[in-house]
Design goal:
Number of helices: 9
Helix content: 55-70%
């Protein structure tokens, strides 16, 4: 049952070294994850759909266009030192994207450089693994993916509940709102009439009003 749950997770592995890429792929599959591998940060962004507008040739050999559009990526694990776009650059691109920023990112490196590790963690990396990556290291991935999956699920539920409440509010409160608006209009109209009457009476002096009323009384 645990393996079935884990198999729902899809990991995108990024490494320019073919040997390291094959190793991480094998370890991830041993842990029952679905795996996609690419050999550069640029191709990782293309797979995630972040550089569609900048890609001149959509049929890139290392990408599967159908999967690129349909498969959800639950975690990105990337090498730090790569030509062109480094793992740190890829991390920043993902965290700067409103649509991708919630995807957990894990950095791998063969060099134990404290400043490098700190910089990646400060930028939003979940973990920093030293190569060679071990199976025990990959056991740390699942909690990050579960946390993100549950958070996304809860967010979708909250959005759905908000939408339903708004629809209910519109359906049940619209007659009431109309009634309130009518009452406000009536009050406004009455106030306007009263103000107009007071203004007219204010322009009439007591001396001018009294004879008029007394004359009417006398006639009646």
């Amino acid at each position: 049952m645990g393996m079935a749950a884990e198999s729902q997770f899809h990991v995108l592995a990024v490494d320019d070294s073919l040997i390291d890429r094959k190793l991480i792929e094998r370890l991830l599959k041993t842990s029952s994850y679905q795996v996609t591998t690419v050999d550069s940060g640029t191709k990782a962004l293309e797979f995630l759909g972040l550089q569609e507008d900048e890609t001149s040739n959509p049929s890139t050999p290392s990408l599967s266009p159908s999967n690129h559009q349909e498969v959800e990526v639950n975690l990105v694990i990337t090498d730090y030192c790569m030509p062109g776009m480094t793992g740190y650059d890829l991390l920043k691109k993902i965290k700067e994207s409103s649509s991708l920023k919630n995807i957990p990112v894990v950095i791998m490196s063969s060099e134990n450089v404290p400043s490098r590790i700190s910089r990646c963690l400060e930028e939003g990396a979940e973990e920093f693994f030293l190569k060679p990556v071990r199976l025990s290291d990959l056991n740390k991935l699942r909690p990050h993916m579960l946390k993100t999956k549950f958070r996304d699920h809860n967010q979708k539920q909250e959005n759905q509940e908000k939408l339903e409440k708004q629809e209910e509010k519109a359906a049940f409160q619209s007659p009431k709102q109309q009634e309130q608006e009518e009452q406000q209009q009536q009050l406004s109209s009455q106030q306007s009439s009263n103000n107009k009457r007071k203004a007219i009476e204010g322009r009439l002096s007591p001396e001018r009003r009294r004879p008029r009323y007394s004359g009417i009384t006398t006639v009646v």
